[in-house]
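Need Protein nucleotidyltransferase YdiU's 3D structure for a figure. Predict it.
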Amino acid sequence: MNAFNELNFKNRFVQLGEDYFQAKPPVPVNSPYLVSFNREAAALIDLDLSKIEKSKLAEYFSGNLALSGATPLAMAYSGHQFGSYNPQLGDGRGLLLGEVQNERGEFWDIYLKGSGQTRFCRGFDGRATFRSSIREYLCQEAMHGLGIRTTRSLALVSTGELIYRQHPEPAGIVTRLARTHIRFGSFEYFFKTNRPEHVTRLADHVIEHYFPDIARENDRYRLMYRKITENTAEMIAGWQSVGFGHGVMNTDNMTLLGETFDYGPFGFIDRFNPRYVCNASDTHGRYAFNQQPEIGRWNLFKLGETLQHLVPIEDLQEELNRFSIHFNKEFQRRMAAKLGLTIIDSDFEELMNNLFRLLAAHQPDYTNFFRRLAYHRSGGIEDLSAAFHQRPEDLETWLAQYERLLDREDIHPDEQKKRLTQTNPKFILRNYLAQRAIDAALMEQDYSEIERLLTLLKNPFCDPDREAFSENDPDQYSADTPDAQLGMQVSCSA
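Structure prediction for Protein nucleotidyltransferase YdiU:
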């Protein structure tokens, strides 16, 4: 384990040359304060907190102190936003400090989000609000706890400065870890400016460093596209299984390795509504929950367009057609696990289709429906059936079908309970819980709620140590969303 100045930087992206980025140090802030530090994420880069002066942590994580070996840069990219091409994007408020190789040979990007202006900032201030920084910091770890492909949170800093959105508000910086920050939009940037040789060079870089197993294949560019397609399908299948809405599925927010990325106006479904729109700015529902798989496919189509000089169009189309197959396979696998089943056949598909019709008709809390289902064979049927009081026979009919498949696999009630509680979370990052932590942080400089949520979300399937919560009953964090907060939306203003 290392101190900051002993990190093993291997900055591979910088080797592509300055057409791909702007070399740029972070803009210093006046009074940085370390709000939270994630030791589990620190272990990914072999960072040892005991070797660092605690007084300097905020200076490093705000960008005020430079890391030895870092080469901070703002990456160039463009992208399709809400279906329309925007040529002027790029890292306008974030910097890739560099890539660290850990003792296991894994590479991790270290990225500061909210680190000041770059040439890509388009006249904005290059900062991020503290409220959006809190949300991103918490949700990256929440998704990791749920077993969904995601970037990670290393640190959260308040800058001590005010920035202006609808009104003055505090700024924050999140230190993000990711296996790559190369996006679909990284390819679009050069494709749309008629620089196919730059697209080829970027593709070669991706294959060499992220997909080395295909480097010697004659059809390596097609295989690269296949891997990206599969990664994306698996990521979105994970979202759909846990009821996560990303909110801003622009092509510049899609990474090649299929990690959930750039958390903004996201939201977890509370009462089941397949048309849930978590982004208040998405007035047409382009990124509604039930549209996410199709949007993922559309984004992959746009990525495929950039590779047409490397892969025949019919081959790209064939790979794109595999997206739905791969998505459905992964989604069914995850849903079978949520139900404690292992046999996936036509009977299971019928069960699942009937389940989603049941959920759409009665709109129970999505997360808690599956959690409560774990206890329905051991006396917990009342908690499960409360949301179905208008037509309880609908639930009874579905449960009878479910029981037949459990019996077919000879699954004992105790085993079913074990499987479901290990697969269906007790805790998710509900928007109203995130807002409660934000309000305490902004109004009272009380960051304890951030830490409590982080503790629960890192291990969402387990009951926490109740002593650590003192007067705060952890069960309140697993309750159904109160009626007044149902369907809460968040805007893109960050």
